[in-house]
Amino acid sequence: MRQFTITPVYRYLLLPLGQMLVFIVGSGVVLSVFIVSMAYLLRSTVTDFDLVQRTLLILPQVLLNGITIGFVYATIALGYTMVYGVLEFINFAHSEVFMVGGVVGVELLSYLEARGLLQDPAGPMPYVWITVAVLFAMVASGALATLIERVAYRPLRGAPRLVPLISAIGVSFFLQDAARFILSVTTGEFNVIIPVFGKFDDFVKIYQPASGAPFQVQIKSLMVIGAAVAMLMGLNYLVNGTKIGKAIRAVAQDRASASLMGINVNFIIGITFLIGGALGGAAGVLYALKFTRLDPFVGFFPGLKAFTAAVLGGIGNLTGALLGGLVLGLLESFGGTYLSIFTNGAFGAEYKDILAFAILILVLIFRPSGLLGKQVGQKA
Amino acid sequence: MTTSAGRNWRQTLGGWLNRGALPYALIFGVLILGTYQVYESPRSLMAFLILMSTPVLVYYLRVKTWFKVAMLVALAVGVIPVVGVRNIFYLEVVFQICVFAALALGLNIVVGFAGLLDLGYVAFYAVGAYSWAIFGSKQLSILHTVPGAAPASAPFALRPEWFWFFLFAGVALAGLTGLLLGLPVLRLKGDYLAIVTLGFGEVIRVLANNLDKPLNLTNGPQGITPIQRPPLPPAFIMQPVEAWLGALVGHPVTDAEMYNVFFYFMALAVILIVILVARRLDDSKLGRAWTAIREDETAAVAMGIPLVRAKLAAFAAGASFAGCMGVLLAANRTFVSPESFSFLQSIGVLTMVILGGVGSIPGVLVGAAVVVILNIQVLQSLSSYLSQLRQSDAVIPLINFPWKDLSTQLDPAKYQKFLFGIILVVMMIFRPAGIIPAERRKRELAREEPVEDETPAPPDKAKA
């Protein structure tokens, strides 16, 4: 009898892809059904237009926006959740690692633009350059995250829980103003704007309904999603398919035993920060691609939401971070768009930040282990 | 961590300074010198530091209690109002120190006594400030107007005397907010609680920013102004007092200056009350329960401590002090805006607590003073120095870069985060107990053994 084995193709390619698809479709369908039924319920309150029709009209766009931003959140959330997995500590400075990655990538692109390398919009070159920028940002952010761990967290290993958290807040503040200082001295301006190049702003028509506007997607949204999916699958392979990944999981499970088994715990923790930081840096460039503008303080809200996403999915759980990111991105996109429509403009999109925190609080109260996390006792 | 060499050094210095009448002369001399310096120079940092070293000396030197009290009263009631009115900048600095010291003392109850990290502490401060801002301004009369479109003739909703009521209402309201927030989230432990309180702080700020529609409650990002001040108590407007003060400072005293003195005394009174309450709480049954919770939650529950009730009490106590200070600040500034209640402020207050010493009341006072002085005196003077350099033709040595071309974005006064960040990291790594550690905390963190000469254990083994 042949022993049943899972083939690598299935395990590292199809399984994560299928998971993502299920998550996207699942959360998208649930939220859409909820919103549409809300629209039916509230239909009578609005007289000057048909609420249901308007809701349905923008639904595909809202879904797409949510998925795009959800993948960005998921990529950042992985950094939080990996560090939490091995160290049981919230790496508050991760939002600044994300910011630094974005700024470094955008500055590289600006440099390339100044050298005249980004002028040709056609051909594969713009895609090559953006890939280079993402890789560069990954290297910079990974190095920064490892450095932070070495300087500010390692001396505090074993201290009471709140001590490294406070140190992390300090690092986060320090990095914000350090980035601002460097940008102000070198360029005189601390906002960085991604140069316009390639055809990323163009739309791809996906579906043309018989009447009305076509449903179309911006190329850059597709790029964000594609890059995030590629990285998430790479991470999945790294953690579940390699020796390093095995060591990371061992350290996360039991640091002392892992050390007894001959695993260099400090090295593995450093590697974890490197991977998490690199993902954060890549997310920074993707974020810049989507929102065009960055500043030294941009990391705060995406960082906090990514943390919320990590908790929502079950902190310490990589698949959970993906699910949490997607759900949060979709919720935010829905909340930001429909809250204003449903309340007739009384409560605008500004409240979407509150929505994320409300979700965080609700999750922590009713299901502290998150959607996918298993019930774990807190290590003291 | 205090090494034995450090202790010897301190003992030697202490023994040398505490001989005979020397400490008395020292304190008195520094007080007089500081007073003279501050009186003569309008914005000098050195002069102010000399004056402020008086309470530090009073704390460290061994003198009779009556002398300590006399010197502190002389400083707080006699010297500061006079030199403050003469050079109003100092009074502003002292007032800010008092405000932040009160806030830091409140946060100290939550973080230091009960061990709950609260990253959204200014939310309670905002609740207090907005409670008086909404009721003590014209805001209630213009609820239905768009921000900026309000007629100037709109009446005030309440008479200014209501301030005294709101001073207590702010305490109650902020305490209540603390309870309401605490009820759902206090089941969370450590770092989760920190993040949720952070989120709550941001929620309050976002609400303040956006509640200008559908009803114009907070006037949005522009903030509420003018807010009424309470009428000055008769003691401040009596002719002899004004004349006497005017003679001392060398110019007639205006009402605005009198208000500054009045608010300074108010802040001082609040601080005294907070210190009193905090000290009594720390030694009470509740305080012991907090310590037990901080050290080991499970053991505390096993000993029969009502966990949620004790935590709620800490949250509410800390919040109510912040609410009181918020009302006071709204009246003093006659203006509140969401900007004043950002995450940066929460971390600023936390920095004061951490720097001074978690759980240590004198430490927190010193921490507040140091951070405020760094923040509004050192950074500000660096800023003005830099702008002077920009106007000159000088160049930066070594790299030959003219100061003139330096970006105007580079303003040290705006680099508070830099300051807070470095303080937090450095304190956590090198001196987690703070400048003046709390007695109990000192033993716990450094694993100090009762035997003096034993080498302390390395800090990373202090607590697993």
Question: Would you mind describing this structure in some detail?
Answer:
The complex is a heterodimer of chains A (380) and B (464). Chain A has 380 residues and is mostly helical. In chain A, 71% of the residues lie in helices and 3% in strands. Chain A is built from 12 helices and 4 strands, in the order αααααβββααααβααα. In chain A, the strands form 2 sheets. A two-stranded antiparallel sheet of chain A has the order 1-4. Chain B is mainly alpha-helical and 464 residues long. Chain B has 2 domains: 18-86, no CATH class; 92-379 and 411-463, ABC transporter involved in vitamin B12 uptake, BtuC. Chain B is built from 18 helices and 2 strands. Chain B has helices at residues 4-17, 22-40, 45-60, 65-86, 88-113, 122-135, 162-185, 190-210, 234-237, 239-249, 255-282, 285-295, 297-302, 307-333, 343-356, 361-391, 416-430, 439-446; strands spanning 395-396, 401-402. The longest helix of chain B is centred in the last third of the chain and has 31 residues, at 361-391. The radius of gyration of chain B is 24 Å and the shape is globular. In chain B, 42% of the residues are buried. The model of chain B is unreliable at 448-464 (pLDDT under 50).
Features:
heterodimer, A: 380 residues, two-stranded antiparallel sheet, two-stranded antiparallel ribbon, 12 helices, B: 464 residues, mainly alpha, ABC transporter involved in vitamin B12 uptake, BtuC, 2 domains, 2 strands, disordered C terminus
Which sequence of SSEs, written as H and E, runs from N to C of chain A?
HHHHHEEEHHHHEHHH
How would you describe the shape of chain A? globular
Strands of chain A, total number: 4
- In which order are the strands of the major sheet of chain A placed? 1-4
Based on secondary structure, the structural category of chain A is mainly alpha
Give the SSE order of chain B as H and E letters: HHHHHHHHHHHHHHHHEEHH
User: Helix fraction of chain B?
Assistant: 55-70%
- Summed over residues and divided by their number, the pLDDT of chain A gives a mean of 86
Number of helices of chain A: 12
Q: Uncertain segments of chain A of ≥5 residues (pLDDT<50)? A: 375-380
Taking the alpha carbons of the first and last residues of chain A, their distance comes to 48 Å
**Major beta sheet of chain A, specifics?**
2 strands, antiparallel
Rg of Cα set of chain B: 24 Å
What amount of the residues of chain B lies in strands?
under 5%
Assembly classification = heterodimer
